[in-house]
Amino acid sequence: MTKPSFVYVTYIATTPEKLWQAFVDTDVMRQYWIGPNAECARMNVSDWRPGSKWEHQRADGTQTVDIVGKVVESTPPRRLVYTWARPKDAADESKHSRVSIDIEPHGKGLVRLTVTHEDLERDPQMLAGISGGWPKVLSNLKTFLETGQALPRSPLPT
Amino acid sequence: MDIDKVFKALADPTRRRLLDLLHRENGQPLSALCVDMDMTRQAVTQHLQLLEEANLVVTVWHGREKLHYLNPVPLHEIHERWIGKFERSRLGALRDLKKKLEGDEDDKT
C-alpha cells in the first residue's frame, strides 16, 4: 500500500445507514454533490457490487461522464472502496487512483466519516482538482444530512 | 465538531506553522515535523494533539509509521459560512494583487 495522498475527516450528526445511502443512492447524491464550478449536481452511478463499474455523471440531463472506476469493496454501512480514473484511462488500471470511504459510529448520534484518496501523486492535475473538490463535497454532505438542505449561506435564518 | 476548538487551535503561530508544513507536504511522521520545529519533540506532540482534537490534523498508520495529514474540512466549513459565492472572485483578485505587490507566496503569520 502506498502512502495516502489525502485523508479527510468530518463528524456528522446522522446514522451510518443514512450516510451510506448518501454515497450509493443517486437521488440523495444529486442533492449535495455539486460540480467544481457549482454549475450542476453530480452523482456516482453503479450497482456498488465488488468488481462492478461506476461512473461520475453530471445530473444535467446530458449524463456526461467525468470520472470512472471499479468497485473494490462494498460493506454496507461501513466501508466502500473504489478506483478513480479519467474515462480514457478506464481500461488501464495502472492509471487508477483509489478512494476509501470509512463510516464509524462516534457515540451520541455522531458518525465519523473518513475519505482517503491514494495513488494520486502521478497525476498532479487530478490531485489539484480533488484537493479542492472533496472538502466541498464533504461539507455539503454534512450540511445536507444535518439540516436537510445543501449549501447554506449562513447558520442564521435569512 | 466544536468550532471553538478550531479557532483556538489556529490562534497560535506554532500550530499554524505545523499546518503550513503539512500543506507543503502532506502525510509526515512526527520525526520529519520536528526537524523544522525549534522545540522539543514533546512540545510538538502536544501541539499536534490540539490540532487533532480540532479535527485540523488527522493521523493514519502506514506500516509502523504514524503519518499526519492536514484536514481542511473544518476550514472549508468556516469559508462557506462567511464567504458568499459572488464574493469569491473579487476576493481572489484582491489576494492576487496583494501577492503581486508584496512578492510573497504565503501569508506567514
Point out poorly predicted stretches of chain A.
152-158
CATH class of chain A: Alpha Beta
Backbone structural class of chain A: alpha+beta
Mean pLDDT of chain B: 89
Low-confidence stretches of chain B: none
Helix content of chain B: 55-70%
Query: What distance separates the N and C termini of chain B?
Result: 25 Å
Q: What count of domains describes the coordinates of chain A? A: 1
CATH-level-4 superfamily name of chain A:
START domain
**CATH fold call of chain A:** Alpha-D-Glucose-1,6-Bisphosphate, Chain A, domain 4
Quick one: CATH superfamily of the largest domain in chain B?
Answer: Winged helix-like DNA-binding domain superfamily/Winged helix DNA-binding domain
Overall mean pLDDT of chain A:
88
Oligomer status: heterodimer
Structure annotation, total helices of chain A:
3
By helix and strand content of chain B, what is the structural category? mainly alpha
In short:
Chain A is an alpha+beta fold. Chain A has helices at 16-24, 26-29, 124-147; strands at residues 4-13, 42-45, 53-58, 65-75, 79-84, 97-105, 110-118.
Task: Give a description of the structure.
Chain A is α+β, with helices and mostly antiparallel strands and 158 residues long. Chain A has one domain (25-106, 115-147): START domain (Alpha-D-Glucose-1,6-Bisphosphate, Chain A, domain 4). Chain A is 23% helix and 35% strand. Chain A has helices spanning 16-24, 26-29, 124-147; strands at residues 4-13, 42-45, 53-58, 65-75, 79-84, 97-105, 110-118. A seven-stranded antiparallel beta sheet of chain A has the order 1-7-6-5-4-3-2. In chain A, a hairpin with a 7-residue loop joins β2 (42-45) and β3 (53-58). Residues 152-158 of chain A have low confidence and may be disordered. With 109 residues, chain B is mainly alpha-helical. Chain B has two domains: 1-71, Orthogonal Bundle (Arc Repressor Mutant, subunit A); 72-104. Chain B is built from six helices and two strands; from the N terminus they run ααααββαα. Chain B has a two-stranded antiparallel sheet. The chains are: A alpha+beta (158), B mainly alpha (109).
